[in-house]
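REQUEST FORM: STRUCTURE PREDICTION
Request ID: SP-0412
Submitted by: Lab K.M.
Chain count: 1
Length (residues): 531
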Amino acid sequence: MSYIFRAAICQLLQRTRATGALSVTFLAFLAMPVAAEPTLTLISPVAGIDMPSTPARPDDVLSRLRAGFALTYEDNPRTAAELKWFAKHPDYLDRVFTRAQRYLPYILAELERRDMPLELALLPIVESAYDPFAYSHGRAAGLWQMIPGTAKRFGVKQNWWYDGRRDVVDSTRAALDYLEYLEELNDGNWLNAIASYNSGEGNVLRAARKNRKANKPIDFWYLTLPKETSMYVPKLLALVEIVADPGKYNLTLPEVPNEQQFVIADIDSQLDLALAAELAGVNVDTIYQYNPGYNRWSTDPAGPHRLVMPVDVADQFSAALDQVPARERVRWQRHKVKSGEAISQIARKYNTTVAALRSANNLRGNTIRAGDYLMIPVATKPLSAYSQSADARLAKTQNRKRAGDKVEHIVQRGESFWTIARRYNVTHRQVAAWNGMAPGDTLSVGKKLVIWTHGAVASAEQPRTSPTDALGNTTRKLRYTVRNGDSLYLIARKFRVGIDQIARWNGIDRNKILRPGQKLSLYVDVTAQSS
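STATUS: Completed
RESULT:
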């Protein structure tokens, strides 16, 4: 039976469902084979009609998913190629659908609430294999693989404490907002909208304009798009076909419970994640698995003030949290400011941020004085206990055994992934991947990178403005402008000189506070800066 005819019958079934049972004769007619005919348009199963070899299961979310399929699309060799790949890799499908169990019911409910095609619930498989910690070379992160700019555009918070691109609540809201915007931008063409999600709205619109000028169709299948995008939509449609009728491809998909797996709990204030785990009666890993957006040992002091909790412990957690005063939800340590210390230095020491210190101590600026006391929010457990924090994940990535010799490189001023890679005879993409970064990420001076190299390390090139003189002297005079948060200690460490040396060179008291904009003369060995 052609898909067009089948869709018409499905619609008829829906309209007649409310009026009473259909005759046995009519049902038998539906089952009758018909002659093969060219397939021009393939229409996914209409809501409420179960596919032949996949009986409905009210306790399985995949039955609910396939009942809401609504996209229309052409049968295409590109989709057939993706179907063939998935059919040959059942283990992959088992893994991703098992991983999706935690998030799929929530995403499906959000799609239903917005009356959007339920096929979009399979998009995170294409994007991230339903891994909230996925991070791509294009700086995309999370289940929906949003890049920083798009996430910011749709109101997703990203900072040192928290990256909402990995949070299932924030990222799903933003991704669906973006998809709705793209569908409207593409005049209701969902396949073009989905292609835009991968390629960028400008690429698809330009391709459509080009086709329109050439009197060609502007549907996805006829657009000239990047190779990745040309296979992106077919990959989603192949997954749709498999979910619609896995038996047709000799596949059995894992059962996904048709019930919410988590509850969004309000916490009203910053909360140590180890304490949250104790209150809920689970381990810290579980807290991170349900709350992958949190980068550190606690929630963001400035919010969001919520935690996603497994449904079976949510009530216990909320009841226990109500008994803990806000001031006791993180541990506090009293710190006496030492001479020469800057607030940024203290923040790094205690694994927190300058903004958090200012807020906790009612400071308007960054000025602190020797002898003052600061109250510092600190983790209740050793940082090693927070096994899925950003620092812990980075350590795992950097310490993973690879071929070659492991070298630690401290980023110097003016260096980039490209210059560092050239020095160690590796690629810039390798350097980024070994350090849990993307090639487009910004490198900060002083950051430690791990490099795995096979060959001899190229010596660092000297700046043309600071050549070694005829006597072999590599010490050069620099003029340094003091910045907000700077201290003699930080400047000395940055340029690998002594605090007393800086004070002597500039005729200043080492205990005196530096002023932003102040000029300092430094005498540094240029070879020591790149060793």
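NOTES: The longest strand covers residues 475-481.
Reviewed by: T.R.
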